[in-house]
């Protein structure tokens, strides 16, 4: 199960977080895509059933990504990986990464805390 991927939030997420046999793995990006987000149409939730509208937006995003500048993030943990023993440690690691300036989605932290609290 993944909590977030680099492709989340229109490829603006700087972490990939998932469960592994050894706990929770966190990989930190070393680059970011820079593109004009103002040209993106409104977000389409696939759960609404409008697959055509979703695919149109996805294709536009892929064109933007293909032509996007790729820049080094330039923070201390670029390209590093963290192995966390449980969800709470992973949530704390994500909070630390966010404080360093990385784009970390709040929903990933929330999900980890919720899962860790259920154990």
Mind explaining what this structure looks like?
It is a single chain. The protein is α+β, with helices and mostly antiparallel strands and 119 residues long. It folds into 2 domains: 1-30 and 73-119, no CATH class; 34-71, no CATH class. Helix content is 39%, strand content 23%. Strands 1-2-3-6 form a 4-stranded antiparallel sheet, covered by helices on one side. The protein has a two-stranded antiparallel ribbon with strand order 4-5. Helix 3 packs antiparallel against helix 4 (106-117). The radius of gyration is 16 Å and the shape is globular. The two termini are 16 Å apart.
Distance between the termini: 16 Å
- Number of DSSP E strands: 6
Radius of gyration: 16 Å
Q: Which spans of ≥5 residues are poorly predicted at pLDDT below 50?
A: none
The helix/strand series, from N terminus to C terminus, equals EHEEEHEEHH
Largest sheet: 4 strands, antiparallel
Q: State which percent range the strand residues make up.
A: 15-25%
Provide the number of structural domains.
Answer: 2
Q: Helix tally?
A: 4
Instruction: Assign a percent range to the helix content.
Output: 25-40%
What's the overall average pLDDT, rounded?
A: 94
Class of secondary structure makeup: alpha+beta
Shape: globular
Spatial order of strands in the largest sheet: 1-2-3-6
């Amino acid at each position: 199960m993944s909590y977030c991927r680099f492709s989340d939030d229109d490829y603006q997420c700087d972490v990939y977080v998932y469960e592994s046999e050894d706990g929770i793995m966190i990989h930190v990006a070393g680059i970011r895509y820079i593109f004009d987000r103002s040209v993106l149409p409104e977000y389409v939730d696939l759960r609404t059933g409008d697959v055509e509208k979703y695919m149109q937006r996805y294709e536009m995003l892929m064109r933007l990504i293909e032509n996007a500048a790729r820049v080094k993030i330039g923070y201390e943990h670029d390209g590093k990986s963290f192995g966390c023993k449980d969800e709470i440690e992973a949530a704390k690691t994500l909070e630390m990464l966010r404080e360093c300036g990385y784009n970390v989605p709040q929903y990933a932290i929330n999900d980890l805390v919720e899962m860790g609290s259920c154990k």
